[in-house]
Amino acid sequence: MMHPNRLDTISETLLMGPGPSLVPPEVYRALSRPTIGHLDPRFIALMDEIKEMLRTVMGTRNEVTLPLSGTGSAGMEAAFVNLVEPGDPVLVLVNGVFGTRMVDVASRLGADVDRLDFEWGTPVVPEAVAGKLAERSYRLVAVVHAETSTGVRNPVEAIGELVKPTGALYLVDAVTSLGGMAVEADAWGADVVYSGSQKCLSCPPGLAPFTVSERAMERIRSRTRKVPNWYLDVGLLVGYWAGGTRAYHHTAPINMLYGLYQALRLILEEGLETVFQRHRQAHALLVEGLEAMGLEMLVEPAWRLPMLNAVKVPAGADEVRVRRRLLEEEAIEIGGGLGPLAGKIWRIGLMGHTARPESVERVSAALKKSL
Amino acid sequence: MMHPNRLDTISETLLMGPGPSLVPPEVYRALSRPTIGHLDPRFIALMDEIKEMLRTVMGTRNEVTLPLSGTGSAGMEAAFVNLVEPGDPVLVLVNGVFGTRMVDVASRLGADVDRLDFEWGTPVVPEAVAGKLAERSYRLVAVVHAETSTGVRNPVEAIGELVKPTGALYLVDAVTSLGGMAVEADAWGADVVYSGSQKCLSCPPGLAPFTVSERAMERIRSRTRKVPNWYLDVGLLVGYWAGGTRAYHHTAPINMLYGLYQALRLILEEGLETVFQRHRQAHALLVEGLEAMGLEMLVEPAWRLPMLNAVKVPAGADEVRVRRRLLEEEAIEIGGGLGPLAGKIWRIGLMGHTARPESVERVSAALKKSL
After folding, report:
1. Burial level of A321, CB count in 10 A (0-12/13-18/19+)?
2. Whole-angstrom distance, CA of residue B126 vs CA of residue B134
């Protein structure tokens, strides 16, 4: 005897946490298109268009631009495992959970990791980075563009300018920013940029857009030993995603890629600038509403992300209870704080399809009721 | 100006290759249920049922039984990266592409790999394994249950009996077998078994069912260094998939997991034995039809897989052209050979939802027409 089908309990929820975000109906429909083979010519043609659309969204002409068959975290793993060998000096700029995670990922791979820490809720300071770069020659410098754990935007362009003359590879995590604000891999001089499908691209989680510069590909090709991760070896992936023969590597997540294809189309049809503006406007509206309620934002205006809004939990409020109430009674998900910010902030996402005035109005009304 | 939407070119195809297989309508519908958060209590409850259903299908009571956020190849990667440390002696039994791949995966991780090769199209011979096990003490012995590249079933139970007294860990790849024939992780003494969602489970590709014995978990916990793969570190994954707190690790592929949940339900509702019998019957019917056409199977009857049928390309037939004709004119996908069998065999899948008399009749008629 089977239990009742739990999928029947899954109803539309206004996703305003740190991701996943709301998925447009067109993307749901795409997910359930008929599965075809991963070497079917129709699928190969779809892959080619996905690569091209990703290049546009990621601001790059890199040949090696493709979605990895894993979540955004697989993107981080792939970036480090391909670019770093044991003993390589790596500098990680840390001002949140995802910078901290980079230190762990790189250390596990045997990199010689230096970390430069900044207070959570504040951005990386380029002057401090310059100082560190003057001290030591790094193989790779890594930073998170949009720190999902704090709502801070880091000055990736300015950091890129500092990294460039040192010859180090430059890694930028764009998991939360991609599709919601400008990501300009080439203009930043970034050698590897990765993201996730479930943030501002508004596709369900499961894919990691990923791009590598030709300079970094050369470094990968001249590694002294094979990439110690067969699944995420970029050299092998390129054999499937590019070139004439399309050699079988692993079976691509076909239906997820239908979803990503559709999600990218929707963004490009709307127009990148229009999409970014929609994020900024929803953000401004949200901040206005929160401040009118007497709530305070964690991050200084200049460094706030439009798609991830960290708001301080007011004295006397039961942080967890408010979130639970929102989810259970209003069908709205918002996020709590992580690490040193646990219990101290809520994280309100305005990502992709979620970034609309209707979402802001609903969450503002629900919060007002709960406080 | 956008290109026409390529998803409109994707129509129902009878998937009779080496996977993906046909997806039942209920699973497509599950895929497009509304996305919710990866820490939503409704999703946690769904995860718990997925784990329990996977235990039933995998023949195990292992606490650590969960779907990895990647394809079957990520399952292979995870198995080796968690269980093997640099310098560990590993024995891989090779009689096809996936055994060969295991050698590569383990070698990249620094294992000291011995391989024992058997002719492609024939099974692993336990006596030869016994000889090898007598020569050296291995940390881990690895074998593929159902070699997708050749259609051979390997005697995993007999091999398990040989491995057990040596104290080595025992790894079984069940990518193609799971859900189509008995997989009995506990009875085989297997310490790690992984699979993929897109074969006999008839869910689209993107998830890797994965189980680890308590004995292997102890070895993982006593590693001298951290698992050099943050994304696939089983210790971290368990923190999200089990226990009380459900610590955030990475964002699970929510909608794919809806699909897997529904696919597992369909299998258990039909009943495992009934499903296996359906596979055997479809296989018998296919072989009968092929032999009536004068075609010859690659593998001896005793070692044939029901779900993957390797048939020799007859003299004079244009292997690639036949496959292309089937796909373009009949909307049927079958597979070609790999490695030494390229150009010499077709691989006809009867996996999961595909394993029905109607599929057999369609592919038999189409082949007859093409030859």
Report:
1. exposed
2. 12
Which amino acid belongs to residue A18? P
CA dihedral B336, B341, B343, B344 (to 10 degrees): -100
CB B194 within 8 A of CB B173: yes
Integer Cα distance of A104 and A125 in angstroms: 22
**Average pLDDT value for residue range A281-298:** 98
- Residue A273's identity, in one-letter code, is E
Instruction: Using the predicted structure, report yes or no on whether residue A1 has a pLDDT greater than 70.
Output: no
Distance (Å) of CA B150 to CA B184, B199, B275, B332: 22, 15, 22, 20
Bond before B20 cis per omega within 30 degrees: yes
**pTM score over 0.95:** yes
Interface with B, mutate which of A73, A230, A323 (most B CBs under 10 A): A230
Q: Could you report the per-residue pLDDT of A180-234, keeping only the tens digit for each?
A: 999 999 999 999 999 999 999 999 999 999 999 999 999 999 999 999 999 999 9
Which chain B residues are within 8 Å of A9, Cβ to Cβ?
Answer: 42, 45
What is the pLDDT at residue A2? 76
Q: Closest Cα to residue A162, out of A213, A127, A124?
A: A127
Which one, of A193, A187, A146, lies nearest residue A171 by Cα? A193
- Given its phi and psi angles, is residue A206 left (phi above 0), alpha (psi -120 to 50 degrees) or beta? left
Yes or no, beta carbons of B206 and A69 under 8 Å apart? yes
Contact (Cβ atoms closer than 8 angstroms) between residue A310 and residue A367: no
> What domains does chain A contain, in order, with CATH numbers?
6-21+272-370 (3.90.1150.10), 25-267 (3.40.640.10)
Mean pLDDT is lowest, of A126-130, B243-247, B354-358, for B243-247
Coil, helix or strand at residue A16: strand
Strands A332-336 and A14-16: parallel
- C-beta separation of A124 from A147 below 8 A: no
Residue A130: name the closest of A103, A165, A95 by CA: A165
Residue B1 pLDDT > 70 = no
pLDDT > 70 fraction of chain A, expressed in percent and rounded: 100
CB neighbours (10 Å) of residue B32? Answer: 22
In terms of CA atoms, which chain A residue is nearest residue B333? A37
